Amino acid sequence: MAGGQVNRLPEGGRIDRSRPLRFSFNDKSYTGYAGDTLASALLANGVSLLGRSFKLRRPRGIVGGGAEEPNAVMQVGEGADALPNLLATQVELEPGLAARGTRGWPSTRFDIGAALDSFGRILGAGFYYKTFKYPRAWWKLYEHFIRRAAGFGRAPDSPDPDRYEHRNAHCDVLVAGGGPAGLVAALTAARAGARVILADDDIEFGGSLLAGGDAIAGAPAMDWVVGVVAELRELPDCQLLSRGTVFGYHDHNFLTIAQRCVPETDAQAQDRAPRPAAERLWRVRAKRVVLAQGAFERPLVFCNNDRPGVMLATAVSGYIRRHAVLPGRRVVVFTNNDSAYRTAIDLAGAGAEVAAIVDSRPGGAGVIGQRVKELGIPVLAGHVVSHVSGRRRVRGAGIARWTGEPWSAVEITLRINCDLVAVSGGFSPAVHLHSQAGGKLEWNDSQLCFLPGETRQPHDSAGAGNGRLSLGDCLADGLRAGKAALAALGLKPPEIEIPATKEIPEAPMEALWRVPAEKDADRCPKQFIDFQNDATVADIRLAVREGYRNVEHVKRYTALGFGTDQGKLGNINGMAILADALGKPIPEVGTTTFRPAYTPVRFGAVAGESVGALYEPVRKTALHEWHEAAGAPMEVVGQWHRPWYFPRDGEDLHAAVARECLAVRNSAGIMDASTLGKIDVRGPDAVNFLERIYTHNVDRMKPGRCAYGILLGEDGMVMDDGVMARLAEDRFYLTTTTGGAAHVLEWLEKWLQTEWPELEVYLTSLTEQFSTLAVAGPNSRELLEKLGCDIPLDGESFPFMRVRTATLAGMPVSLFRVSFSGELAFEINIASDLAPNLWRKLMDAGREFEITPYGTETMHVLRAEKGFVIVGQDTDGSVTPVDLGMNWLLSKDKDFLGKRSLARPDCLREDRKQLVGLLSRDGRTVIPEGAQLIERTGQAAPVPMCGHVTSSYRSASLGHPIALALVAGGRGRKGKTLFAASPGREPIAVEIVSPVFYDPEGERQHV
Amino acid sequence: MSDRIARSHGLEAFFGAAESVSGAGVEIALPKNRGFLNLRLDPRRERAVRAADEVLGQGLPLAANSFTGGERRVYWLSPDEWLVETRAEEAGALCGELEAALAGYHAAINDISGGQVALRLTGPEARTILSKGCTLDPHPREFAPGQCARAGFARATVLLACIDETPTYAVVVGRSFADYLCHWLANAAGL
């Protein structure tokens, strides 16, 4: 069944050969096995060219085996299902998986941009900054081609059909990384009874043990892993998250994990509707964190080190041992440390010919060197691979003697034909999360890497990520970190023993940051540091020559460590080259900032379930169903959905609103005003408290009275308004605007709790409890009487601005004789669970009055006809009550919040913007809302503006359009003409008039 | 008299004729006829607290984030605020009795039965559903039967109470948010 899997080994590996899987890459069909990654399956099929590099369009293949992979960035799936920016090394092979390389236009093999490589000499650091600046007008043209040619894949073109979910989780110890150190740390903590989350980005736990030939306690290391994982699974307070990448370490020990969910077979997926979540975002609050994410192998920096077929040695071992894939037949291993010797042994064991181990160290390896010699593998100690030949695939390696002088030219003394170069430049601990958490880094001169240093949050590092590279050290360090976490939590450490491992003494590694070439460093073939961003040795040196000194600046100039790579592969090599060019030691140069996300995270996972209908809560009034059944379009007001207007057959907004307005003015209308905020205020100090908040004289209100009230911010500006009703000596009922409800309650509580705690006042929100049905129009009284009301409703017994409790149609209500329309009106407050019942009764009884339900638009028109402002529409936080002509509301007998600010010189200016009415001179034109008002037409820009239009409507009652506006010194300019200017229209001549257009004496609401 | 008048909880469309909907390992139910009172009182006034206790037939919980009772529950909301959950038909009378018993004390009692909806979330996966939308730690050691908390849930504010070890949770939410919350829960439960 091997088919085209030319590189598949006949046996071994953690793959399921009984489950062959078809998949495609760049529209060509291949077969792999369950247990493969996309990368291992491609390598098994002998696919070595995967894409083109970002800037120079050079052919690129797979370099690594995990999150560090810089080149194999894939687009997986088609259309809406497409996922850009996936690393082939992390994509689990699924049946029918369709992948394509994300770079290469029009195709990976024939890339127009590849011509760019020939111009590589001029495409150095900062090329784009320097070249595409001039002429400025051409940028749009440049941009079109640059954008087309750049980037890692394309965004899907239609909504994502996948489901995602969020999970909040809490634990005592979060262990990031399920390799040997992480497993021991998790086991230690979990055995002690701590709540543990162990997250690992791989499909299986085991980390480096998945690919190694290690033994633990005399048995294969994976036996030990299986045992530990089984024990952890049994513990109730331990959560194991495989396929879970800890991608962000935020403040307060808050960490985020993106967990890819187990791919299901088609049959399984069909059984479950809707689809299970494709990715889960874990939001973890951890008391302690152990970072055990391991270390990344570093490439070595030589000429053309980016050619497909140059791979990291540990990755080669991983493909052989874990996936049973042999990525090359004739191999050169190039190293500055002992680790790669193990790869040579793996290669030889898998049947490859190891042409040579090229070791820069004159003394070669330690004990393991003997083992290699026994296998007959030639070792060239004191040598380096200076360059490789081949374009789409490595064909040979040029070997030179290593003089210890990185910058002097060398002579190639030996050329070896090969199709694979396995390189190891030492290991860099994955310090990303440690750095994200604010931890410091310390340079280690013997291990030649940055190690996690001082921490700022309660976390610890363990294992290879803490510089402990041997298996025995990893296990011991995991135990130490687990015990340290327990000690910090005050838990007793459990009985636990570290199993025995066989340690082989190693010879020290050697610093080898740049391999010398036949030509000097700025003329030799490219030596790549950051493969993903095409940053080379020459680029960094150029940046330094051009005056860049700080590592963060060099990063931005050369793009080193950008993109999904985030410095995983090239960072340390880059810092070393930079340090050399600056003549400084590496620790003085430091590293760039590591930022989340550690690997790409899907936007879908970030959004979670809050998409579509669940994106934003829809708050519905108790009458919502009735409005919907009546066919009312909804207006979104904050989170509320309110009926906008109630169209009859074929009516548009204007026709419906005109009809609704006339119905209210001539007979009776009914509106759902339930979204108003409602607050119960009670206590012996209620009057005292409200006097301080509201501007009017609260104490003068007798029980049963209502008053229009405004409250100001400390800056004297109008914050909210509403009706205040005094229900009893010590009890008030406030209404607020719909949008201001929550804020006003918070504002009142803030003053009560933090400034005036001595006041005995309780506030209770009743917004949800009461629905408000506003019945307005000359026939509204008759309607209520018809319905059966147990109190007299005539104007003498129940005058304007009074409140009464009553029984209406057999239901308990509060009746407010207030009016936002200027007509005789009753606002009925009733428990929300009874509101639909009462509404239906009102509609039935109102038939003889042609009772007309009206929406927010008619409400706006009616109140504008009366010159009533809407806070937030006619005000914007910079409007005082004086600006609105509400001086009569400002008590002179007491202090209230904002009063002193009203005496500021700026608030006393005569030319402040003041509320006025506007009429278009022609009597027909509706003035656009938001239009700026100017003194005269024909002025050169910038035209001085003297005001703006805040509200504008057609008025069916008046027969002409009306508008409200804020105009500088407006009240003194009545009768004057201004012009309303808005883009794309001729200025409209308007006359300044009183803002009260209808029934200026207010007789109608008093009847 | 008002008891004969049709009342609406606003979730008729969501639940239809059923009293609950079930997903894998979780049931979302709407217990019928629940009434609610909001009570504000200074717990340092011991005589007032005793008077309230007597009317309620159980002690006001004074420990933070706890509740007392079974069929009638009193939830602690803040140091001087409680939510009483009782049978709907009792709520009005109970409100009046509390008003009378606490006359002369600084207190506020409001019948808010019309504005609250109490959902019940029960089943082995209830904790998972909770963890999808709420940052509260639902671990039985941290949020045990007898405990309650006001919390953000999805994008609404709710009162959560752990009723039993099944686990069962009471989720009390303002009625305007109830339809949104039910749809959110149904989605989270895979319905």
CATH topology of the largest domain in chain A: FAD/NAD(P)-binding domain
Order of helices and strands of chain B: HEEEHEEEHEEHEEEH
Average pLDDT of chain A: 92
Please report the distance between the alpha carbons of the first and last residues of chain A.
94 Å
| CA-based gyration radius of chain A | 38 Å
Number of helices of chain B: 5
Gyration radius of chain B (Cα, Å) is 17 Å
- The CATH homologous superfamily name of the largest domain in chain B equals Probable tRNA modification gtpase trme, domain 1
Strand count, sense and barrel status of the largest sheet of chain B are:
6 strands, antiparallel
The number of domains of chain A is: 7
Q: Give the oligomeric state.
A: heterodimer
Count of individual beta strands of chain A: 49
Task: Provide the low-confidence segments of chain B as ranges.
Answer: none
Explain briefly what this protein structure is:
Chain A has 1007 residues and is of the alpha+beta class. In chain A, helix 5 packs parallel to helix 6 and helix 19 (653-666) crosses helix 24 (856-865). Chain A starts with 15 loop residues before the first strand and ends with a helix.
